[in-house]
Amino acid sequence: MAQQKALPQSKEALLKSYNKRLKDDVKSMLDNFTEIVKLARVEEETQVFRVTECEQDQYEMHVRAANMVRAGESLTKLVSDIKQYLILNDFPSVNEAITRNSQLFQEMQVECDNKLMALRDDMAADLYELEEEYYSSTYK
C-alpha cells in the first residue's frame, strides 16, 4: 500500500520537476533575448569610448546568445526525457501489446497443434495400411 502511494508521489514530483525546468528555460531564453534587444539601443554620449562600449556589448551579446543556446539545448533534453518517461512508463499500452502478442502466439500454437494432430492421424492411418499389407503379404 505504501509503495502504491509512493509511486504517484514520485510521478508528481517528476512532473513538477519537468514543469519547473520548462519554465526556467523559457524564462532564461526570454530574459536573454530581451537583454540582447536592449543592447541595440541608440548610443548615448558617455565617458566610455565608443569602441570599448561596442566591444562590451558584443561580449554581452555572445554570452546571452550562449545562454539562449544552453536553454534551448536544455529544452531539447527535457523533451527527450519526457518522451523516454512516456515510453518507459506507459504500462497500459505495453500491457496491451503483450496481451495482443500472447493471443497471437496462442492462436499460432493451436493452429500448429491442429496441423500436428492431422499429420499424426494421417501417418497412423498410412502406417496401419502398411502393416496390414506387410503382415498379409506372402513375401515375408
List keywords for this structure.
3 helices, mainly alpha, disordered N terminus, rod-shaped, 140 residues, 88% helix
End-to-end distance, in Å? Answer: 77 Å
Number of helices: 3
Amount of helix = over 70%
Query: Which residues sit in consecutive blocks of at least 5 with pLDDT less than 50?
Result: 1-7
Globally, the shape reads: rod-shaped
The total beta strand count reads: 0
Summarize the structure.
This protein has 140 residues and is an all-alpha fold.
Provide a descriptive summary of the structure in words:
By secondary structure, the protein is mainly α. The chain contains three helices and no strands. Helix 1 packs antiparallel against helix 2. The chain starts with a helix and ends with a helix. Residues 1-7 have low confidence and may be disordered.
